[in-house]
């Protein structure tokens, strides 16, 4: 894996992306023994509707804690996708909600599409776990942190009464990632 | 006010300092029309027990989002105080919990001591609002963000059922700040 991995989790307020970023950073920095920094920025941009949470993970000390070019971009709204895809590394991957991001950007990167929020609603009766399913997909696809570490971080950060549903959501994300990998391979890295 | 204000909210895990940082940054960046970045870092340091949440607020674009020298340091444990006071600006202020930080550092800065966690427990029957009382004290003392902005940010970030108690905790923090200002003036900026 690269020495320094930069992630951008983007969508709109209320989609739980700050918490997702905190969980990813804790998984890396507390349970996987790496260094991690999690950041959110507010300004004219944040007031425009698209919000993002950034995570930088490194094997060594992190000098500059902001995302320069994303290696992994999660997009849970069209607005966020349009905005942050410009900052995707040429080797970076895009994970997008296929129901919420209908105009998929015309890029040569690996793209993984899945109806994440819709699946959260169908399987768990709430869209609140969209962020945790997304984490499962990202970790399943990229192994940016270990599955064990992300499980521990999820359990330590979500409220006790919501622990079980969030653990299931995470495991579902791992499964989705497996399917997406196969699908992606078959279609020669082009997703329909 | 300075163009760029740097804050370090320090203590131990579970004291709600990440949430406090997010609320401060949202108050500045969403409700006060400034730019704000909120960061937490995980690494060897985080595994040592002292945790911190950093907030940088500026009237202009924020180029470097991490705290270089704190203008405001909140310390809710002795370990955190000992660690992060070294990074306090010479004109910076220290706000510390007087029950949890018993060895007050020998510095020439303005120091404001108050039994924050104990007061949370006594007045609200829970230490969970220690972070929000702390925010009230910081904003009351420094006006780093407007009182209106921090009230809006608290209400938007805490769970609906906990809104009332958190609003009260914030207002209590404002009142404590008023008293601390008077006390600090009387004692010639030296707190007993």
Structure description:
- The structure is a homodimer of 192-residue chains.
- The first copy, chain A, is an alpha/beta fold.
- Helices cover 41% and strands 23% of the residues of chain A.
- The first copy, chain A, has six helices and six strands, in the order βαβββαββαααα.
- Chain A has helices at residues 17-31, 78-84, 116-124, 130-142, 147-157, 163-186; strands at residues 4-11, 35-42, 51-58, 70-75, 88-97, 110-114.
- Chain A has a six-stranded mixed sheet with strand order 2-3-1-4-5-6, with helices on both faces.
- In chain A, strand 2 (35-42) and strand 3 form a beta hairpin.
- The first copy, chain A, is globular, with a radius of gyration of 15 Å.
- At the A-B interface, helix 1 and strand 2 of A face helix 1 and strand 2 of B.
Work out the oligomeric state of the chains in this entry.
Answer: homodimer
Name the structural class of chain A: alpha/beta
CATH level 3 topology of the domain at 4-115 and 142-157 in chain A: Pyruvate-ferredoxin Oxidoreductase, domain 3
- C-alpha Rg of chain A (nearest Å): 15 Å
Q: What is the assigned CATH homologous superfamily of the domain at 4-115 and 142-157 in chain A?
A: Pyruvate-ferredoxin oxidoreductase, PFOR, domain III
**Overall mean pLDDT of chain A:** 93
DSSP helix count of chain A? 6
- Globally, the shape of chain A reads globular
Unreliable parts of chain A: none
**Widest β-sheet, arrangement of strands of chain A:** 2-3-1-4-5-6
**Quick one: CATH class of the domain at 4-115 and 142-157 in chain A?**
Alpha Beta
